[in-house]
Amino acid sequence: MDARAAAEVCTTTRLLPHGGNPGAFVQCDAGGAPMVKTCPEGTAFKAAEQLCDFPQDAGLSTAAKAGTAKLSVLPLGVTDLNADITYNDLSFGVTGLPYAKVTFTSAAGKTLCTATADLQGHATCDAGGLLSTVDQLLRGYTGADRDGDSLITGSTAKGTIVLL
């Protein structure tokens, strides 16, 4: 777990799915610190039932919502690319997916940057340098949570980029 995640405080007693590893989950200790725990070998965390289960029964679908980022000319780059990754917790409603891996791409499909969501499912990063043309960037960007694992069904959202 990175230093940023260790500094975050959990505010729930529910077990949360780990957005980057279907075979793991996040549990908050009594002091509010997140602890990543793993399921027994050969199983995956099933968020709806709060337990580890056979992988074919533990699928999780997500939703993404991307926000507005800013294109700066000097220095050239895009700041505050951001997306919120959520899933529907059957008992508590829509909940942020912690540690979801998010890739931000330009309208032309070039990777701008990648980020890992915080405990609330919010991911953000900055992309410096000339990665795409200004025209391409002003058409917006895409934030997608994809970890390559079929147990978590990824989602995609389109965000906007404004010129500072």
Short description:
With 164 residues, this protein is mainly beta.
Element string (H = helix, E = strand): HEEEEEEEEEEEEHEEE
First and last CA, distance: 34 Å
Q: Rough shape?
A: elongated
In total, the number of strands is: 15
Q: Quote the beta fraction.
A: over 45%
Give the proportion of residues in helices. under 10%
Derived from helix and strand composition plus strand pairing, the structural class reads mainly beta
> What would the average pLDDT be, to the nearest integer?
82
State the helix count. Answer: 2
- Rg from alpha-carbon coordinates: 17 Å
Task: Please describe what this structure looks like.
This protein has 164 residues and is mostly beta strands. It contains 2 helices and 15 strands. It has helices at 3-7, 134-138, and strands spanning 16-17, 24-28, 34-38, 44-46, 51-53, 60-66, 68-72, 77-89, 93-96, 101-106, 111-116, 122-128, 141-145, 152-153, 155-163. The strands form 3 sheets. Strands 6, 7, 8, 9, 10, 11, 12, 13, 14 and 15 form a 10-stranded mixed sheet that branches. A 3-stranded antiparallel sheet has the order 1-2-3, with no helix packed on it. The radius of gyration is 17 Å and the shape is elongated. The relative contact order is 0.22. Residues 1-6 have low confidence and may be disordered.
